[in-house]
Amino acid sequence: MNTDRPLDGIRSIKAKLGLLVAVSIVVAALVAQIGDRAGVPTWLTLPVTIVAALGVTQWLARGMTSPLREMTVAASRMATGDYSQRVSATSADEVGALGVAFNTMAADLADADRQRRQLVATVSHELRTPLTAQQALLENLVDGVVRPDDAVLRTALAQAERLGALVADLLDLSRVDGGRVPLTLASVDVRELVEQAVAEAGVSRRGTVHEVQVPRNLHVVADVARLHQVLANLLDNADRHSPTGGTVTVSAGREGADRWWLLVRDEGPGVPTESAERIFDRFGSGDDAGGGTGIGLAIASWVCELHGGSISALATPPGERGARIRAVLPVEPRPAPAPAPPTNPPAMPYAGSFPTAVVVAPAAPTPSHLTSSTTLPAPSSTTSPATSPTTPTTAPPAVMPLATQESSVPQPVPAAAGASPAAPIGASGPTPPTASGRVPVGEREPLIDSVFGDLWPEAGLAPQVRLLLVCLGVGVLSAALLPYRNMGLALLVVLLTGGTVLWRTSERRASRWSLVTAVVCIGLASLSVLRAADWLMVLAVLLGIVLTVTALTDAKGLSSMVAGAVAWPLAALRGLPLLGRTIGATSRVSVVWPIVRTAAISLVALVVFGGLFASGDAVFGSWAGALVPELAWDSLIFRFFVGFVMGGALLAAAYVALNPPKVHRVAAPAARPVARMWEWVIPVGLVVALFVAFVVAQAAALFGGHDYVRRTTGLTYADYVHQGFGQLTVATLLTLATVAVTVRKAPQETPRERLVLRVVVGALCVLTLVVVASALHRMDLYQQAYGFTVLRVLVDAFELWLGLLVVLVLVAGIRLQGWWLPRAALVSAAAFVLLGGVLNPEAWVAQHNIDRYAATGKLDVAYLSTLGPDAAPTIVAGLPRDIAICAVATDPASGDDALAWNLGRSRASALEVGPAPAAEVERCATLRAGGLHR
């Protein structure tokens, strides 16, 4: 089986498509099932399943569509005149048949193009020689150098006749493969015809003597003019290749009752065996020593086929010299129905000389590209034999000048040095892009390049073997360190290693923004060893990803930051061409695959023989158990999934660092300001008025107290403040969006327009800060009434961050320049997470609940028991031991090794709080169910 095209043996494209879909589904289901059985989380199983299904689909579909891709590239090159391209047609389906037909067409087109060029060159040479001599003769006559006597005029006439004969040959050649050609049949005396042809040939310029050996009683039925063409061309060919003073012998005779033969023999060098068939092709002459055009024998072959006969070059007997051209023709060609008479029938030579009957002989079949024959052009409707002494009564049609014909045909692209003239597409590897990033002429733009276009071009990227190996190494490191360990030092090592790889790969690593983000990301990563709260690390990793992609892509605006974040997962698709080139480059490195192959074979040998010896000998088995860790299949699968996801994610990010997208082009287009100021002032002014009304309502509720709220709303104050917190948060977000739209649409040409913008937007932002303060006050009151939770603290932090953004907007409004706002907002968010990690939010929540317990006697023990190890020291220090036992998790750091070390878990494990005694279990369950009330 061909691993590159595994489905070549299937004969139906529909069956291939169905099999492709089925195999992809089976692979996806199998990978998902393996991950589920091994206990791999869904967020790890899903990407591996998708990649596996897409990989199988790509593997199968590439072999199915590669002939189509090759044909697209070849057709593009053929459009420029390069007919040397071929496609790999190994498939048994319809696409394979199309590839075979395409190769046949390409070969025929290449042959036709070669013949056309050879025709132009040869005809130009043949026309130039007599024209030059005739021009010199006429100039001598005009200048009086020579006198116009009979000898001079005969010379001029001979030159004109030679030109006429060449033009007649070309006209005849144009009919060769044109279909059904009419023949004017008549009774022919072969000896008389041969003697007439010999007499017209006369003594050649080499002094060749013609000898006729034809019986006098040989009569056949044939087209006289066409047979005359055969004789004239054979004699001319023999004369040109005969030595000076040589003899050309023409003989003929019967061959059976219904066939006769014609033989022309000379004393020249003869026809090589390997050229015996090719000499009857157009321009198929064995060599150019005779000065021929290579079309005479093609015309002779065509005439013989029209009569239902054949022509061939006989082998020269041993000890003799010369070529032997033998034609075998029927005595009476079989008549065929005559075609419809042409509009302007050409005049036939020798008309009236013999009784005639018109028949139509089928044209010779079009040769295949596998033979040496060549497809010839369509026939002309004009008949003008080369050697006819009769002047046609109808003028031949005008013929396009050769120069025009030459310019109307595309020129071929020269093949690269050393390349095969018919090399398959892709035989020499992919064509690298040009320096400008454009696809070379004749090359088809890759699909992925066309999808991403100018937003994410890839030009001049060499294979990155070292980078690929480093990312694979980080994946292996992740698979070895992360599974079956709590968050801690191992995660920090993996994050710092991956970050170092990205920083070294990035072309912007020396920029100020990259250095700032690197420092912030190190701080966020350090939370993995500082705090044990998983949710805090999730926020830190997500913010670290956003900071990383903004540094790699140099994103400045909000839309460009979003585009940069989306670019990371899309890099798994955009980087596939580079990954393919890199994997291909590894096969050219002599040491890489031998190392991999040796390691794989060695591992298999160790597993097989080691397992046999360990199971067969107790002592050896004890040694093996001490040296080899116990790795179950579930563990290996889980580690593979972790390593694949981590290595793949790092490889995608490395591609963004190596070839960042042009995220700045994703920015929204410049908005067109409104024509009149009141068009934006009125709507924004109404929003400001609503904010003012809300502030007044807050003041009324604040000064009116609980009784006023209950009397006007029917709600308790706690329910009142809790009811509106979410709406106030949304209002803050919408205010920021309103400010952004206002700044884009408000005109800022004059100082008055800019002043109005500052005043209105500034008032709106100040009122928004009042809303933020109201929201924070409401949440504080609600927590005092119902207790503190991590989620409520996070909501408080988010609202406080929104308030900080409003302050930043106020600062930007002073000079109406806000290009720095998106990056400032991102850094401030990271600062909030870092500050929260340092302040230990879970301990803060625990402490405030303990303070509330001290003040009110109310304590949610069940919620305290859900807090992580970070809160354990605070709980133990702030609560009585009998309550702390019920509120602290038992032995949070059990099973941790050095690579799983974490400060929060380490401090919690140092507490002298063991599991609740059996007598206390029921009491702890009661406390968790109903809480604690004093």
Question: Kindly, what is the distance between the CA atoms of the first and last residues, rounded to a whole number of angstroms?
Answer: 80 Å
CA-based shape: elongated
The secondary-structure class comes to: alpha+beta
- Per DSSP, the total helix count is 29
**Approximate helicity band:** 55-70%
- The strand order across the widest sheet is 2-4-5-7-6
Poorly predicted ranges (pLDDT <50, ≥5 residues)? 336-442
Count of extended strands: 10
Portion of residues in beta strands equals 5-15%
Largest sheet: 5 strands, mixed
pLDDT average, as an integer?
78
Which value, in Å, is the CA radius of gyration? 47 Å
Verbal overview:
With 934 residues, this protein is of the alpha+beta class. Among the domains are: 1-148, no CATH class; 179-365, Heat Shock Protein 90, CATH 3.30.565.10; 465-666, no CATH class; 840-934, no CATH class. 59% of the residues lie in helices and 6% in strands. It has 29 helices and ten strands. It has helices at residues 13-37, 42-79, 94-143, 150-173, 190-201, 224-241, 296-306, 402-408, 447-452, 465-481, 489-505, 512-530, 534-553, 558-574, 576-586, 592-616, 618-627, 633-658, 678-713, 717-745, 751-786, 790-815, 821-839, 841-856, 861-866, 872-878, 881-887, 903-909, 918-930; strands at 181-189, 209-213, 219-223, 247-255, 259-265, 310-314, 324-330, 356-361, 858-859, 932-933. The strands form three sheets. Strands 2-4-5-7-6 form a five-stranded mixed sheet, with helices on one face. A three-stranded antiparallel sheet has the order 3-1-8. A hairpin with a 3-residue loop joins strand 4 and strand 5. Helix 6 (224-241) packs antiparallel against helix 7 (296-306) and helix 12 runs antiparallel to helix 13 (534-553). It is elongated.
